[in-house]
Amino acid sequence: QVQLVESGGGLVHPGDSLRLTCSASVFTLNQHTTDWYRQRPGKSRELVIRMYSKGGVTAYLDSAEGRFYMSSDFAKNEVYLQMNSLQPEDTDIYYCKNNGYWGQGTQVTVSS
Questions:
Q1: Best label site of 6, 28, 50, 69, fewest CB within 10 Å?
Q2: How far is CA 80 from the centre of its chain?
Q3: Residue range 45-66, pLDDT digits in tens
């Protein structure tokens, strides 16, 4: 059974950092583009940042530029989203997408 799993979310204070992990079973992540999306209740899911299968990362949200980064450890079949200088407006459920599959999401809450 194909599974894409996000982890690493939690409750943090403004200015803190978090690293989210996207891991997969059945297929290898580096054969496809990996996207991180986020969504809050009542809003559409929005693309935050993308890592291409051949390398390279593009931030799609202006607010992610210079704060959010992607990396990978393909030996572990994992892709990471490093989020720095988190702000309350970054509070969302974060999802990874790869090879047409979505994970279940991980909640990130930024609050003082």
A1: 28
A2: 7
A3: 999 999 998 889 999 999 999 9
The answer to whether 46 and 37 are in contact (CB under 8 A) is yes
pLDDT of 94 above 90:
yes
Amino acid identity of 108? V
Under the banding of pLDDT at 50, 70 and 90, the label for residue 82 is very high
Burial class (CB in 10 A: 0-12, 13-18, 19+), 65: exposed
Q: Mean pLDDT across the chain, nearest whole number?
A: 94
Hey, which residues does 96 pair with through a beta bridge?
A: 36
Of 56, 54, 89, which is closest to residue 71 (Cα–Cα)? 56
